[in-house]
Amino acid sequence: MAEPVNISEFHELAKQALPKMYYDYYSGGAEDQYTLRENVEAFTRIMFYPRILVDVSSIDLSTTILGYKVSSPIMVAPTAMHKLAHPEGEIATARAAAACKTIMVLSFMSTCTVEEVASSCNGIRFFQLYVYRRREISALLVQRAERSGYKAIVLTADTPRLGRREADIKNKMISPQLKNFEGLLSTEVASEKGSKLEAFASGTFDPSLSWKDIAWLKSITNLPILIKGVLTAEDAVKAVEAGVAGIIVSNHGARQLDYVPATISVLDEVVQAVGGKVPVFFDGGIRRGTDVFKALALGAQAVLIGRPVIYGLAAKGEYGVRRVIEMLRDELELTMTLCGCRSLKEITRSYVRTERDSLRSSL
Predict the structure, then answer these.
(1) Do the domain assignments include residue 360?
(2) Which end of the chain has fewer surrounding CB within 10 Å, N or C?
(3) Residue 310's domain spans which residues?
(4) At what angle do helices 233-241 and 263-274 cross, to 10 degrees?
């Protein structure tokens, strides 16, 4: 295949490159995969309302995230076990993110250690956190990340248990030994049936995690805390009250509870509930620069991309990840040019119309 010209071509290359078990793991969603499809398709129902005769000879995509300057509002989402996609794993991803002058969120379930990724290159990195039943393991990893120069903690809050991913059950998906946990706990599980990853998660994830635990997390780190997994106005208000530094609107890439709404369809509601008190970020279903623009127009400060990064990594390693980020950035720049927006702050709600807007105007 010739050099890919869009994300879906990278997806095709990744499908050819990966063993079926790993491809299914990365690309699959929960149960009927309704939300998985909807995450992508919901973007197709949002239309642009561009402005003409604007001087767009100069376009500025740069922004700041928690005070850190980045070249574009496109960050790397936390995704697990990059070495299943490429031998260099998260180190290749980190180098690509740094080359693109953007932020990478390292997964708690990474196949390279917190320290290896930190020493691989200069870049701004955040650390994603799951809270385990053995709290001291989570606390230790937070402290290691802080010592290694990570700039924020991203608490994933939608995973008291792992969602039912049927492809992983059929494939008997294995969980490799994760280097971050060496000497702390084993990812070996004695489950003969179904997904070994799911068996590992159900034995380790803490289902008692609740809002009061934000105070516990604040007590063990000085880093700002972002909360990932917010889908409702009510939870957005609680997150602000709990004192988080930012919110990530996310349905975990449709891998947890099926038949939750596509993230882009609830972004508006969450942004309005937050009322500008903290930044709102977005992930789920982004495959084009036009999707990035739509999320920004609906109030996100930046977006995070997960599967496209994995597809780039599986297809072409570090170079592939860099190309994926650059592609989305170039498409966003073109969208801004054709909509008449010269900077990110000019991208406002008035440039897009959602299905809900069309419904209101017809009433």
Answers:
(1) no
(2) C
(3) 7-352
(4) 40
